[in-house]
Amino acid sequence: MKNPSPTSHKSMRVFFDASVIIAALLSTTGGSALLLKYIKAGKIIGITSQTAINEVLEEDKTKKLKKSKAEIENFIARSMLAVREEITPEEIEPYRKSVDVKDAHLIAGATLTKCAYLVSLDKKHLVREDVKRKFLPLKIVSPKELIEEILLRFVV
């Protein structure tokens, strides 16, 4: 079987949950930060929504991160994540009964932006086998699972 070229990663559209962005802010050496480096390197296309960004910018999170809103906004701008406008209640509606209501915007965002992957650290509500099966062909993965999948594409 012929291996895909490294440029085939560009077709990997990945929707980022706020939890992954927060983890990247907290640790520059973790898997979440590595995924942001993959965006900058052109290995994947990283997308999020203003809804997720607003979650990152909530006051309780900025205190936990010990960073100002301006510092967080600068970090997000430098990450090269594409940011879609806020997800509307109408766009969320089809997913409200299928997943925790606070996470429905992520499924909507990933679907609306035609992402193949939704990367999240939310094991309680999203990164669970029953939820993963509900939304196929969208692949809901942890940063570790996504990194493994990206690395598999490089294996000879």
How is this structure best described in words?
Strand 4 (117-119), helix 8 (129-134) and strand 5 form a beta-alpha-beta unit. The chain has helices at residues 18-26, 31-40, 50-56, 59-65, 69-79, 89-92, 104-112, 129-134, 143-154, and strands spanning 13-16, 45-49, 82-84, 117-119, 139-141. The protein has a single domain (6-154), classed as Rossmann fold, CATH 3.40.50.1010. The relative contact order is 0.19. The protein contains nine helices and five strands; from the N terminus they run βααβαααβααβαβα. A five-stranded parallel β-sheet has the order 3-2-1-4-5, sandwiched between helices. The radius of gyration is 15 Å and the shape is globular. Helices cover 48% and strands 12% of the residues. Helix 1 crosses helix 3.
